[in-house]
Specification:
The complex is a heterodimer of chains A (about 120) and B (about 375). By secondary structure, chain A is an alpha+beta fold. Chain A has four helices and nine strands. Chain B has a six-stranded mixed beta sheet with strand order 10-11-12-9-3-13. In chain B, strands 14-17-16-15-18-19 form a six-stranded antiparallel beta barrel. Classes of the chains: A alpha+beta (about 120), B alpha+beta (about 375).
Chain lengths: ~120, ~375
């Protein structure tokens, strides 16, 4: 999974060609607790690096999900509408949020790779 | 307000919460478990289907001694306390001169005193309030050495009766002294979940042991503050500081039922005149239940929009109701929009989402009334 990058806000983006799939990390889902609702962007929307792109709600509270990179939303995970708990059970797989067409691949260089993210999370404890 | 973990108070069960994997958060000055590894959804459902054990030791426990204690307390609350039979319990409110609510509390008449349970966040203020107004007429005893546990859910009675058979036939809103695992407990059949259940006032130095004994029963799981909040919201019960506060009166809050007939006639509690005026003339805003039609929860502070597009109220509590299987909320709206079934819109993140005024509780109460 060397093509996966991470943000300090605990989003991940996996690059396949010019499409990036975005979700939240295992650490993030654990911090949130049971996810009960996800608000996803509309297909066609332009998202910008660091801008609010989605909202994830646990029983207790709503949290923003930020876009790790610039891009245009090309697909959203409709399965989350009926089964938001996928974010908890499989955050980096079936619990993905949305896909974007990557606008500027060089933005990925500023994000953390898996090893860097792992030590970042360890530093939070 | 940020509070460093070091300055937070701890209940007698603090070490047990950590051992059980509780996720600790600051609440009313205490370091409390918001959830355990089971998670809020499962903890909520477990309480509705079996039995949940809650640490509510952060709440204030106070005894009022003296033959005139009931009469004296009536000077501060609109509830009929003098009419409370021994062993019976009542929900009431501290009000101020403008009929604003200072706190809500439970009062149980014991043989030679009144037993009060008040909110954690208000307890210092409540104690000062009681001292300032009742010092001459009765003696105040703050129970610093008692823990308070809540055992809630349809299996709560069969679990507790294994160790104290006399609790089986207790009625909802009654209390009695019980020997529990050799400790002197004061048990009330009451709670904050809408389910049958008990609150157990027990010696602090026996609390951990008693909690462990109850948790060892197969029906019982530890439940955190997160599920406590979703359970009470589905049950339509107010949370002080959110659904009721100094800016709401008992009548606006839909709590007129707590004001006894004699108290309405005789008065003698702060804000009586305003309460009577509101009971006669009606109120401008009132607390209602709200069911959003979609899946998005509407949180506290969400503006409520009327058919004309103007704001007609505000959500005071809102979350996902695990038993309802969707979002639930309560809030205050102008009275012309308060009828059950009225269509409203909730302004969530700039989007107007459809919702309806709904009857509360959202999940039927299952108290033991018989």
């Amino acid at each position: 999974m060397s093509n996966v990058k991470y943000t300090q806000d605990h989003e991940w983006v996996r690059i396949d060609g010019d499409v990036g799939t975005i979700g939240i990390t295992e650490y993030a889902q654990e911090q949130l607790g049971d996810v009960v609702f996800v608000e996803l962007p509309e297909v066609g929307k332009a998202v910008t690096k660091g801008g609010e792109a989605a909202v994830v709600e646990s029983v207790k509270a709503a949290s923003e999900v930020f876009a790790p990179i610039d891009g245009e939303v090309v697909e959203v995970n409709d399965a989350l509408a009926g089964e938001p708990g996928l974010v908890n059970s499989d955050p980096t797989g079936q619990g993905w949020f949305f896909k974007v067409r990557v606008k500027d691949a060089s933005q990925l260089d500023a994000l953390m790779d898996e090893a860097a993210y792992k030590s970042f999370v360890e530093g939070l404890h | 307000m940020t509070t460093s973990p070091e300055s937070l108070l701890r209940t007698p069960l603090h070490a047990l919460h950590l051992e059980l994997g509780g996720k600790m958060v600051p609440f009313a000055g205490y370091d409390m478990p918001v959830q355990y590894p089971m998670g809020i959804l499962k903890e909520h459902q477990h309480t509705r289907s079996a039995a949940g054990l809650f640490d509510v030791s952060h709440m204030g426990q106070v005894r009022l001694h003296g033959s005139d204690a009931a009469k004296a307390l009536e000077a501060l609350v609109p509830g009929d306390i003098e009419g409370l039979q021994p062993g019976r319990m009542r929900y009431t409110l501290f009000t101020n001169e403008t009929a604003g609510i200072l706190d809500d509390l439970m009062v149980t008449r014991c043989e030679d005193h009144l037993f009060l349970v008040v909110n954690a966040a208000c307890k210092q203020q409540d104690i000062r309030h009681l001292e300032a107004h009742l010092a001459g007429s009765c003696r105040l005893e703050v129970l610093e050495d008692r823990a308070l546990l809540a055992l809630q859910g349809p299996e709560a009675a069969s679990v507790l009766a294994r160790f104290a058979p006399e609790v089986r036939d207790m009625r909802f809103m009654s209390g009695r002294a019980v020997t529990l695992f050799g400790a002197q407990a004061f048990v009330t059949r009451s709670g904050y979940t809408g389910e049958d259940g008990f609150e157990l006032s027990i010696p602090a130095d026996r609390a951990e042991e008693i909690a462990r004994r109850l948790l060892a029963e197969p029906e019982v799981q530890p439940i955190g503050l997160g599920a406590r909040d979703s359970l009470r919201l589905e049950a339509g019960l107010c949370l002080y500081g959110h659904d009721i506060d100094k800016t709401s009166t008992p009548v606006e809050a839909g709590l007129s039922w707590t004001i006894g007939k004699r108290r309405r006639e005789e008065g003698g509690f702060p804000g009586h005149k305003i309460v009577m005026q509101q009971l006669t003339d009606g109120v401008d805003t009132c607390r209602v239940g709200i069911l959003p039609e979609g899946k998005a929860p509407a949180r506290e502070g969400t503006p409520i929009i009327g058919p004309a597009g103007d704001q007609i109220g505000t959500v005071t509590s809102g979350s996902f109701g695990p038993t309802v299987g969707g979002p639930v909320a309560m809030g205050y709206v102008r009275k012309e929009f308060a009828a059950e079934g009225t269509s409203l819109q909730l302004l969530v993140r700039g989007k107007a989402l459809p919702a309806k005024v709904a009857a509360m509780p959202f999940v039927p109460h299952r108290y033991r009334k018989g």
